[in-house]
Design a protein that fits this description.
Two copies of one chain form a homodimer. The first copy, chain A, contains 16 helices and two strands. Chain A has a two-stranded antiparallel ribbon with strand order 1-2. The longest helix of chain A has 31 residues. Chain A is globular. The interface between A and B is large, with 56 and 57 residues.
């Protein structure tokens, strides 16, 4: 069984999000009935298929720390999907990405609405502005869903600092990512640091901490969970980097080689450049970040990443980090059923199929 | 004495913001020392001169409902300045505005940094992306400042729904504003509705409610405060519309006639268009929203707004709304010293000088 489906979690997260959004509809309607497209867009974005990885780590962090299975904690964990929606919607505006999860990116959706309605002004500008506001709204709604989850006030009070730290690290990591692209020649070390803040901590370690903090776990427990969550998060991010270059569009929801067209300075690319000869380096410099890069160009870059041994080294790093996470998991005191699921989640989050 | 300075409020809000931002510096530094410019930018943005209008209404809402003067409530009220910073930074990205408060807009500041450092890629794109992330960070920090203000948990719990509603209305209002520009021919009614959600409720009514809710005020009290805050907020917004067309750049911090170049569909413009003849209408349609509109073009539009009687009608509406707010203020049971300051604030927020 897919560990993400344990305790029917994926289904319950979807229901919690749907219930929250239905509750928002009359509120938006009371402001103006013209807000319908905004509500629909968020619903389409959130209620489609999703791995619900962050809610899963939050929920199992709660269970690991001795919390019982309740709908309230599932609702609280679901708020992370709204936070993630904000991050992705704004990220797509910043990158000018066309698609997300196989659908048009939020700014493209609103540009298309503008064009379809033949409104005044620039459709692209309208799309970007609407997407900025919808991202803001998701960030606010994430908060509201957490606060109205029905969790006891004391539990929320304990989780709030973790939640704040996670959100600040997320935005700081996104800025470091921008800076990395702007500086051009990223080192392996700096690429890994960006990945740590932008994704690793925020996808696994912090959701796990949040669940544990909701259950009243102390600082020592959180450190033990980090020994599992942090290397696992980095392995997850490295897997994501590999999929961004070699992944199947059918499962990633993005065109093949999209990270290469975006010019992402991942550890994978940085590793290839440390080994590449002058001719290979010239090819990378020419192709990386070219938004119109052909399938042939993507293939050339892939060949270099393989030939330099960068892919093998990243695969080895993923295995090593995952093993380290699993060893820490085995050593930490926690509820046994949660330990079992966290082990399966570690494998699911870093395997080639995700 | 300026009512905004009563109880040294302006000074204390500045200090609360400075203390919060100093506390964030080591946190950002621990992530990466390259985050310095981000920290500096928020500090420059927040710690310069500011009217601190929203914290003032929040604080006096608290006092009106019987709360005592404490540093904790001033800190909680200061969080509204971080929320406002998010709104303005994102608004300037959406409008492509060059300046804010007489300084370069946030996205321009980061475009200049990119250009000055001769980084890779497009400076304007980098500036916009950085500004989106800094706006997000301010939205998150607003929350954190409120939650760590030292206010009792029960007070925060009571204020949270008001805070959430305010934030949702703000973003919805911004979207309605976009839509209003996209639809082109705004009616007076729709322009007033945009102004209500984007500014009126969010500047006065909701901050007042937030302060009162922190002090434990019930639903009935909030309704009474709305009878003052809502018409006053609308009067404030209409004054802002007038200043956007006729204001002195030295006091508005924006170039003269900037709202006309941005093509803002304010009630002032909508009123002028309901009365304008065909020749005047043609001039408005040609000039409104022209980013390169000359001083002469601005003068032509101003003349039409005056000649159609729109300016006089808006001034009359401002007086009428302010009088209605003041009558409600006199009728509501509240602490007498707060009533006095709220009366002075009403006049300050809607007078020609603000």
């Amino acid at each position: 069984m897919d560990p993400l489906d344990r305790d029917d979690l994926r289904d319950r997260v979807g229901k919690a999000l749907a219930a929250f959004l239905s509750g928002q509809a009359p509120r938006l309607d009371a402001i103006s009935e013209t807000l319908g497209p905004l509500q629909d867009a968020v619903a389409d974005y959130l209620l489609g298929a999703g791995k619900r990885l962050r809610p899963a780590f939050c929920y199992w962090g709660w269970r690991a720390a001795g919390g019982a299975d309740t709908d309230e904690v599932v609702t609280a964990a679901s708020s992370l999907e709204l936070l993630q929606a904000c991050a992705l919607i704004h990220d797509d505006v910043m990158d000018g990405s066309d698609t997300r999860r196989g659908q048009p990116a939020m700014h493209r959706r609103f540009a298309a609405l503008h064009r379809g309605e033949d409104w005044h002004g620039d459709p692209e500008g309208f799309g970007r502005s609407a997407a900025i506001l919808i991202g803001d709204l998701c960030l606010i709604w994430a908060d509201e869903l957490l606060n109205t989850s029905g969790m006891p006030a004391e539990a929320l009070r304990q989780a709030q600092p973790v939640y704040d730290e996670m959100r600040v690290e997320l935005m700081a990591g996104q800025y470091l990512d921008l800076l990395e692209q702007a500086l051009g020649g990223g080192t392996v070390e700096s690429a890994l640091r960006v990945a740590r803040y932008k994704a690793a901590k925020y996808t696994i370690e912090k959701p796990l901490h949040m669940g544990a903090a909701l259950a009243g776990a102390g600082a020592e427990d959180l450190v033990r969970y980090s020994a599992y969550g942090l290397p696992l998060g980095e392995a997850f991010q490295l897997r994501d980097d590999v999929l961004g270059v070699f992944g199947d569009p059918a499962s990633t929801g993005k065109p093949a080689g999209d990270d290469l067209r975006e010019g992402k300075r991942t550890a994978l690319v940085a590793l290839a450049l440390t080994v590449a000869g002058p001719a290979e380096t010239a090819v990378v410099r020419r192709h990386l970040g070219d938004p119109h890069l052909s399938a042939d160009g993507v293939e050339q870059l892939r060949d270099i990443i393989v030939a330099t041994g960068a892919l093998d080294r990243v695969e080895a790093l993923i295995s090593e980090l995952t093993d380290r996470a699993l060893a820490a998991l085995r050593a930490a005191p926690m509820e046994e059923d949660a330990r079992g699921v966290l082990e399966e989640l570690a494998i699911a989050a870093t395997s080639r199929a995700v």
